[in-house]
Recover the amino acids of this structure.
DNA sequence: CCTGGAGTTGTCCTA
DNA sequence: TTAGGACAACTCCAG
C-alpha cells in the first residue's frame, strides 16, 4: 500500500495534530504525508484576516510546525490562490490524494468545492472531514426539515443527536513525504512591525494546541464549578478563553465536549458548570449553522425591516468608541481591554455593542468590522451572529427594548470596579460608589481621586437616558414604517 | 393545519 | 427596599 506518492494534508482552521480527522485519514492511507498551509489572500469572497488574527496565525503556524516536526513531518508553507497552489504541488510531488477538514463560511465553501472538483478531474483523490463543529449544519434539522432559527430547541436537538467521535491515536512517528520548498513564515509579515502593537497580545496569550489543552485542563480543574456565576464577571478570570484556540482549530469542539463530559461525571457544581460550557460551545455551532443556511447574515440584517433603520453616520463617534473615550467607564474599559489584549470579556462585548448600536445609533456592521480587525478570536459566524443579536436584527435576537445601561451593568457585574480600574487607570483612585459614574461624583471626591472630567477622563459623550429614548423612538418609527 | 408555549444575557416605573 | 409588571409583537417549533 505504501508508495512514494504522498498524501497532502491541507491545514486551514484545524491547526492541531491531535483529534484531526484529515490527518488521521492521511496516516491511515499509509502514504508519506505532506502537511501544507496556504496563505491565500486571493481567492474571491474570503475576508482577509484582521490584524490580531494575523498575529495569532503566525504563532499558531509556528506551533503547528513544531508539533508536526515532533512527529517527523515538515509543514510546508505556500502562498497564493489555493487551487493553483494545490495543483502545482500535486504536479511537483506526484501526490495522489489531498485531505482537509471542512470550513463553513460561504466563500470558503465555494473555494473548497472548486478545489475538490479540480482535483477529482485530475484523478486525485480529494476527501474532506468534520474536525471543527459538533454537528455540521446539514446534520441537524427541525421537525419540519428546515434549519433551526432559535437556539434553545437547537440545543435540545443537538444534545439528543450528538455523539463524540472515537479518538484516533496516531503513532508517535509519522511517515514524511520528500522535502519540498516552501515559504519562510516570517516573509508573510503577519506580525506587526511599524509599530509593533502586539506587546499586549504577547502578555495575554500562549498560542498553539499545547497551550489550548493546558487552558482547557486548567479551566476544568479550577474554574468550571464557578462558571455559571463567574462567567458574567469581567473582574474575575471566570471564562474559558478558548475562543481564539477554537477559531484556528488548535483545539476541536469534540475534545472540549469529551473533557467536559468527564467533568459532568463528577456531579454537583462541576457538572452544572460543564453543562454551561457545552451550551456556550453549542452557540458557536449554532452561529455556524445560521451562517451556512443564511449566508447573507454576514453582511445583511436577518430581519429585513432593519434595512430601514436610521443609522447615524458618525465617524467621530465611532472613533471615540474604538479608542475607549466615551466617558462611560465600563464601555471604555472593554474597548481598551480589546485594544490591548485582542480580547474582550463576553458580557462587556454585549455592553459595548449595545452602546454603539443603541446609544450612538451607529450601524452594527461598523462595530463588527472593528471587532474583526482587533479580536484574536475574530470569527465570521460568531461575530456577525452576536452583533446581530445585540442589534436586534438577528435570528432569535435580543428584543429592541433591551438596552444595556453601562452604569447598572457595571455595578452589577464589576461591583467594586476592579475591571474598570485595570483598564482605565485614570479612574484608579475613584471610590467604588462612583467608579462607574464619575460625572455624578461630588467635586471633592473627584479632586481626591485626581480626576478632572474633560481633562484626565472624558465627560460622557451622550446622556444615556436621552440616548435610550432616542433609540426606542427610532425602533418605534421602524415598526410604524413597515406596518 | 392548527395550537399553544416559549424565546441567552434588561431596564424602569410603580406600588 | 423590593418585587412585579410593562415594554411588542412575532415567529419558531413541537405535538
Amino acid at each position: 500500500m505504501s508508495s512514494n506518492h504522498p498524501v497532502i494534508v491541507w491545514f486551514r482552521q484545524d491547526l492541531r495534530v491531535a483529534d484531526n480527522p484529515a490527518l488521521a485519514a492521511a496516516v491511515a492511507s499509509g502514504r508519506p504525508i505532506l502537511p501544507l498551509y496556504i496563505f491565500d489572500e486571493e481567492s474571491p469572497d474570503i475576508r482577509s484576516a484582521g490584524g490580531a488574527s494575523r498575529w495569532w496565525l503566525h504563532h499558531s503556524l509556528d506551533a503547528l510546525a513544531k508539533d508536526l516536526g515532533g512527529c517527523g513531518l515538515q509543514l510546508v508553507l505556500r502562498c497564493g490562490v489555493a487551487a493553483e497552489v494545490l495543483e502545482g504541488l500535486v504536479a511537483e510531488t506526484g501526490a495522489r490524494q489531498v485531505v482537509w477538514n471542512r470550513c463553513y463560511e460561504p466563500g470558503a465553501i465555494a473555494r473548497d468545492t472548486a478545489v475538490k472538483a479540480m482535483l477529482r478531474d485530475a484523478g486525485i483523490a480529494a476527501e474532506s472531514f468534520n474536525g471543527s463543529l459538533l454537528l455540521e449544519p446539514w446534520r441537524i434539522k427541525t421537525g419540519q426539515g428546515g434549519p433551526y432559527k432559535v437556539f434553545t430547541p437547537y440545543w435540545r436537538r443537538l444534545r439528543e443527536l450528538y455523539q463524540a467521535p472515537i479518538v484516533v491515536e496516531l503513532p508517535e512517528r509519522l511517515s514524511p513525504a520528500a522535502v519540498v520548498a516552501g515559504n519562510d513564515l516570517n516573509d508573510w509579515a503577519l506580525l506587526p512591525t511599524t509599530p509593533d502593537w502586539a506587546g499586549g497580545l504577547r502578555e495575554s496569550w500562549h498560542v498553539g494546541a499545547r497551550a489550548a489543552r493546558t487552558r482547557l485542563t486548567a479551566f476544568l480543574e479550577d474554574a468550571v464549578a464557578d462558571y455559571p456565576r463567574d462567567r458574567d464577571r469581567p473582574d474575575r478570570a471566570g471564562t474559558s478563553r478558548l475562543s481564539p484556540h477554537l477559531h484556528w482549530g488548535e483545539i476541536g469542539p469534540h475534545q472540549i465536549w469529551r473533557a467536559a463530559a468527564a467533568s459532568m461525571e463528577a456531579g454537583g457544581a462541576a457538572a452544572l458548570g460543564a453543562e454551561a460550557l457545552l451550551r456556550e460551545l453549542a452557540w458557536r455551532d449554532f452561529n455556524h449553522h445560521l451562517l451556512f443556511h443564511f449566508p447573507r447574515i454576514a453582511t445583511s440584517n436577518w430581519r429585513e425591516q432593519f434595512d430601514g433603520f436610521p443609522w447615524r453616520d458618525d465617524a467621530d463617534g465611532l472613533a471615540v468608541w474604538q479608542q475607549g473615550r466615551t466617558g462611560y467607564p465600563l464601555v471604555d474599559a472593554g474597548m481598551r481591554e480589546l485594544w490591548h489584549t485582542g480580547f474582550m470579556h463576553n458580557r462587556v462585548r454585549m455592553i459595548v455593542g449595545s452602546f454603539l448600536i443603541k446609544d450612538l445609533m451607529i450601524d452594527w456592521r461598523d462595530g463588527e468590522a472593528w471587532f474583526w480587525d482587533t479580536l484574536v478570536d475574530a470569527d465570521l459566524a460568531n461575530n456577525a451572529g452576536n452583533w446581530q443579536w445585540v442589534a436586534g436584527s438577528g435570528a432569535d435576537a435580543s428584543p429592541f427594548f433591551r438596552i444595556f445601561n453601562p452604569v447598572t451593568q457595571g455595578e452589577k457585574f464589576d461591583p467594586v470596579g476592579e475591571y474598570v480600574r485595570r483598564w482605565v487607570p485614570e479612574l484608579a483612585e475613584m471610590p467604588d460608589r462612583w467608579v462607574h459614574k464619575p460625572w455624578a461624583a461630588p467635586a471633592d471626591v473627584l479632586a481626591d481621586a485626581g480626576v478632572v472630567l474633560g481633562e484626565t477622563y472624558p465627560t460622557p459623550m451622550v446622556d444615556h437616558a436621552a440616548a435610550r429614548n432616542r433609540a426606542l423612538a427610532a425602533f418605534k418609527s421602524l415598526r410604524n414604517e413597515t406596518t
